[in-house]
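Structure (tokenized):
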């Protein structure tokens, strides 16, 4: 049955697959064929065209180099002053220096005939002296650098034979490459020197795109232009030809993106394809909108409302595909079940919370009651009946407060009166060994707080801080503070020895101390009650005061009776 629904014309899968195939497959086949065929034809045509262009430019470079080579050979054959440089200058210094002057003047004149060259040079290995022209646009530092490079190059080739100087060859100085040709007569070298980048100036006029490259490369295909880095040669059409005059080649790297720019037929075909796609797109969008988008939008809209807490929302029934009918039914059923489950869980949480609060209050009450009876017993031994009557009255008021307290909150004034009864009993018990002070504004008396929250920490002071060695002062301060919301700040501080370091570490890490026999069960109960009533809105800060003694700060949201 499921397979029938999937293959039926009502199935969203069937509609999507058929619509997608009818639209995409013909376009993909057309684009693949057109792209493959067009790229193949254009690549062959561009390669052939640029192969002729590269050969033409290389022939031009070779002709220029050949002219310079003829000039060098002519000088070797007919320049008599070169012979004088092959003899030590000490033999006939006048003829040697006159020959140097004549050759220098000749180089200065002839260099203007061969504008492609940077330097013409003559080197006497016998006298270790270099003669070269001096370009007007070259600085002294540049000239010294080139002359030093020429001398270094010649010294590296002093042992070469005449046949080793038949062709031009590249030579590198630092990051720059130069094309060099040398003729040798005896121990005298005459040559020409040109920077590789200068030979590439005419190629700047070529339209091969901003990323296209025209390079002079060595026999090892190393570019002789310092800014000719190539990231991926597979992105370029490579056309090269080798020089007939030297050991280097001319390489064209033409980006395929530039090649495609010169394909008007292919571009027009692409425009037709794009135009056809734009015409089909609205029709396909309307189809998808009716079949898929509208049903999905209905479900998404209801899901957003449910996420915001409105569990009464349901997806309305519309004529849709089989899959969306099933999704709508399942979603509506899930929301109904979630709503019922949430109500049940909420009621159970309320019940558990109320039971736990009552249990915690009952856990506190016997603790104080036993201490109070022990105090009356001690007073009866001294037969001070007036003090026993006063203490009994305080105890009666305390127990009345406890017996009638079955609420989650009490007024601050009632909690203070109850705490004052307790403190008065302790003051009568310890006399000069214990004093207390309660400070607070009358405007705070109607604020609602959990019952016994102050009495718990006051009792902790009586239990742990009072000794017979020195008097103890207890202070309770209450004030209204402002943060993101107004809150009631209650500070209970004593002048005793304070909390131990071990206890502070446990309180700050909020370790569960309810089942430890350390006398701090009341504090743990108070913290638990605050979490049940306020979650994260209330804070309990336990520390030692810098001047000594324990200090407890209780921060509660400021709530009045009419705000509940």
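Design, position by position:
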């Amino acid at each position: 049955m499921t397979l029938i629904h999937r293959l039926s014309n009502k199935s969203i899968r069937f509609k999507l697959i058929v619509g997608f195939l009818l639209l995409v497959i013909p376009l993909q086949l057309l684009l693949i064929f057109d792209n493959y065929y067009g790229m193949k034809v254009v690549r062959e045509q561009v390669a052939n065209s640029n192969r002729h262009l590269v050969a033409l430019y290389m022939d031009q470079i070779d002709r220029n180099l050949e002219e310079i080579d003829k000039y060098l050979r002519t000088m070797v054959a007919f320049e008599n002053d070169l012979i004088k440089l092959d003899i030590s200058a000490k033999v006939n210094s006048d003829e040697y220096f006159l020959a140097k002057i004549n050759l220098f003047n000749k180089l200065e004149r002839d260099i203007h005939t061969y504008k492609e060259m940077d330097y013409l040079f003559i080197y006497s290995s016998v006298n270790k002296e270099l003669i070269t022209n001096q370009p007007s646009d070259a600085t002294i530092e540049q000239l010294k650098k080139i002359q030093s490079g020429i001398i270094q190059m010649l010294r590296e080739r002093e042992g070469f034979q005449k046949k080793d100087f038949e062709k031009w060859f590249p030579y590198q100085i630092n990051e720059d490459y130069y094309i060099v040709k040398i003729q040798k007569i005896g121990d005298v070298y005459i040559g020409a020197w040109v920077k590789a980048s200068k030979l590439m100036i005419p190629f700047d006029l070529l339209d091969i795109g901003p990323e296209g490259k025209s390079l002079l490369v060595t026999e090892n295909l190393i570019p002789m232009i310092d800014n000719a880095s190539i990231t991926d040669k597979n992105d370029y059409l490579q056309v090269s030809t080798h020089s007939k005059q030297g050991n280097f080649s001319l390489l064209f790297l033409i980006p395929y993106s530039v090649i495609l720019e010169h394909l008007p037929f292919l571009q027009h075909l692409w425009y037709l394809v794009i135009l056809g796609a734009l015409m089909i797109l609205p029709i396909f969008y309307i189809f998808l909108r009716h079949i898929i988008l509208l049903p999905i939008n209905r479900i998404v809209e209801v899901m957003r409302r449910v996420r915001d807490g409105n569990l009464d929302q349901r997806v309305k029934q519309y004529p849709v595909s089989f899959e969306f009918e099933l999704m709508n039914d399942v979603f509506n059923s899930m929301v109904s079940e979630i709503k019922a489950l949430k109500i049940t869980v909420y009621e159970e949480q309320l019940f558990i919370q109320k039971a736990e609060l009552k249990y915690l209050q009952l856990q506190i009450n016997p603790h104080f009651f036993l201490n109070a009876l022990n105090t009356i017993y001690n007073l009866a031994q001294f037969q001070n009946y007036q003090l026993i009557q006063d203490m009994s009255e305080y105890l009666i008021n305390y127990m009345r407060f406890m017996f009638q307290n079955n609420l989650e909150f009490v007024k601050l004034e009632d909690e203070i009166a109850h705490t004052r009864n307790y403190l008065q009993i302790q003051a009568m018990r310890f006399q000069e060994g214990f004093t207390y002070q309660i400070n607070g504004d009358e405007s705070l008396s109607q604020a609602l707080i959990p019952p016994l929250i102050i009495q718990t920490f006051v009792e902790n002071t009586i239990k742990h801080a009072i000794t017979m060695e020195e008097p103890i002062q207890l202070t309770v301060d209450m004030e209204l503070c402002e943060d993101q919301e107004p809150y009631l700040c209650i500070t209970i501080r004593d002048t005793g020895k304070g909390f131990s370091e071990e206890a502070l570490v446990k309180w700050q890490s909020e370790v569960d101390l309810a089942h430890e026999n350390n006398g701090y069960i009341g504090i743990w109960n108070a913290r638990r009650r605050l979490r049940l009533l306020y979650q994260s809105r209330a804070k309990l800060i336990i520390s030692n005061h810098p001047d000594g003694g324990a200090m407890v700060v209780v921060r509660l949201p400021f709530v009045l009776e009419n705000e509940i």
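Reviewer-requested clarification: The first helix runs from residue 2 to 7. Confidence is low (pLDDT under 50) at residues 1-7.
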